[in-house]
Amino acid sequence: MKHQTYKATLNELEELCILFDEYRQFYRKESDIEAAKVFLKERIERNESEIFYTKNDDGAITGFVQLYPLFSSVRMKRKWLLNDLYVRKPFRGKGYSVSLIERAKDLARETGAFALSLSTEKTNTIGNNLYPKAGFVLSADWNYHDFML
User: Which of 65, 50, 13 is nearest to 34 (CA)?
Assistant: First the structure.
């Protein structure tokens, strides 16, 4: 089932920051609604990310996706990082995440990007089952390394 997606604005900030805080807790981070609000507000005001969300029939936000622009020097093109994807537990398995991923793919096409990339924890069973079904391919050609500060 395809769900309508909406581009986030400051009008949705209050509800989105609660959802964003739930998402962070999913990744074992302490709840901090105020910091979540500041973080999302900055991303929206500075146009540093694209955030899309879905709603249920009652108008409550069910999930969101946040994407950051990257650029490839070799390809001289844009690439998008699908950094955050979260759907509230009661709405999982109902197509909300698929609709959000499809909107992310549309953004990549609309902006002439050459790729849409993501990474997730190896323990994220839901995501690791979903992403191949959505057309993402686990890279056999690239090793991704992080230097954690």
Answer: 13
Domain that holds residue 109: 5-133
Q: For residue range 93-102, list pLDDT tens digits in order.
A: 999 999 999 9
Question: Cα separation of 23 and 65, whole Å?
Answer: 11
CATH value at residue 13: 3.40.630.30
pTM of whole model > 0.90?
A: yes
- Residue 81 has phi, psi (to 5 degrees) of -100, 115
Q: Is residue 83 part of a domain?
A: yes
pLDDT digits (tens, 9 = 90+) for 4-57: 999 999 999 999 999 999 999 999 999 999 999 999 999 999 999 999 999 999
Q: 76: alpha, beta or left, given left = phi > 0 and alpha = psi -120 to 50?
A: left
Query: Are 49 and 38 within 8 A, CB to CB?
Result: no
Cβ-based neighbours of 97, under 8 Å, separated by 6 or more: 63, 85, 87, 130
